[in-house]
Specification:
Blueprint (H helix, E strand, L loop, with lengths): L9 H13 L5 E5 L6 H13 L14 H7 L6 E4 L10 H11 L9 E5 L7 H12 L5 E7 L7 H5 L2 E4 L5 H10 L4 H10 L4 H9 L2 H12 L7 H13 L5 H26 L22 H19 L4 H18 L2
Parallel strand pairs: 1-4, 1-5, 2-3, 3-4
Helix pairs in contact: 2-3, 4-5, 7-8, 10-12, 11-12, 11-14, 12-13, 13-14
């Protein structure tokens, strides 16, 4: 069965199968979801079904015909895939014009052409306006699948002219299994799977950045008295944020990721302080069963302060000053609670 292995995306599979079985495919789909939730794989499976010359049923491909073999090998002359060119940040208008040119040609093998546009939200304004003309007057023998991580940067005119299919994040347990295969221990895999809210792409980024190792060290430092080490913590986070980044904007983004680790720690401590928190509801499950020295209200206030610092960093505030003020505030509040 064409889509049987997409077990984590039942809603998307149901929508596609319904359209195939009814014979009412739209001229354009918009697949939206986090990186790594199999949007591209689903688009390729749909291409195999649509281009198959001997379908056993409307929502399946035979796997044996010439079109199936060519599509599987990424060599079908009527199946085209584009994305942001290597070394570029945006999808340029030239790529869209090439799509328009190909869409205007007659199919070489079957009854239609299939296009996959990755990184759709990264189209330049000129490219988006150019592609809109294609959606307004779509060739009758073409099917377009746009792939995006969110709708935020896509023009509403393009969204409204496409059939939206949302892809959900993976269940935490499934993502934990994937991370364990990559060599992570159980606690690190658990933390990453929950920290990225089930997004495989984010989990892989965090794994490569060794965010789980940073989190373990941060928890040790935050568990110690802060007053004598607030500026030391500030310097350490600034150094961690700058490591491996190539621009100030990247350092800001990384610092926000690091500070979110602190926010989740205080959130977990607040839950642990209630005495009713099981490891299933914690990011840092090793905190289950601990007895925090402060009250849940204290830790919620600490988490709120960290979240406010994250917002200030995002608003381009001075990083060092923001961190100095944050850790001083956390230390003073901790001292007053004793």
């Amino acid at each position: 069965m064409a889509f049987d292995n997409l077990t984590a995306q039942p809603r998307a599979v149901r929508l596609l199968r319904s359209a195939l079985l009814s014979g009412r495919l739209p001229h354009a789909y918009l697949f939206v979801g986090a990186r790594g939730v199999e949007k591209r794989r689903t688009a390729r499976l749909l291409a195999r079904v649509v281009l198959c010359e001997d379908r056993p049923r409307p929502d399946e491909f035979c796997g044996a015909c010439r079109s199936c073999r060519l599509t599987e090998g990424d060599a079908h002359p009527d199946c085209h895939e584009i994305g942001v060119p290597e070394g570029k940040q945006r999808l340029p208008i030239g790529a869209i014009r090439e799509v328009q040119r190909l869409a205007g040609l007659k199919p070489r093998l079957g009854a239609g052409r299939f296009f996959v546009l990755r990184d759709a939200e990264r189209m330049t304004l000129e490219a988006a306006n150019c592609f809109l003309k294609t959606l307004e007057e779509p060739p009758g023998d073409c099917l377009f699948v746009l792939i995006a991580t969110s709708l935020q940067d896509l023009p509403e005119t393009i969204v409204s002219r496409s059939r939206l299919v949302r892809f959900g994040n993976l269940p935490a347990a499934e993502l934990v299994d994937r991370l364990r295969v990559k060599g992570l221990d159980a606690d690190a895999a658990w933390w990453l799977a929950h920290r990225c809210w089930g997004s495989p792409g984010a989990a892989e980024d965090f794994r490569e950045a060794e965010l789980h190792r940073f989190n373990s060290e941060l928890l040790k430092r935050l568990s110690e008295p802060l007053l004598r080490k607030n500026f030391e913590l500030s310097d350490w986070l600034n150094k961690e944020a700058e490591g491996g980044t190539s621009s100030p904007s990247e350092a800001r983004g990384r610092l926000q990721d690091l500070l979110e680790c602190a926010a989740t720690f205080y959130r977990d401590m607040a839950l642990a302080g209630t005495g009713e928190a099981s490891e299933d509801v914690l990011f840092n499950r090793d905190l289950a069963g601990t007895t925090p020295t402060g009250s849940p209200d204290l830790y919620l206030e600490q988490a709120e302060s960290v979240l406010e610092a994250i917002e200030r960093v995002g608003a381009n505030a001075n990083r060092t000053l923001t961190l100095d003020n944050l850790f001083t505030e956390l230390a003073m509040r901790q001292m007053r609670s004793r």
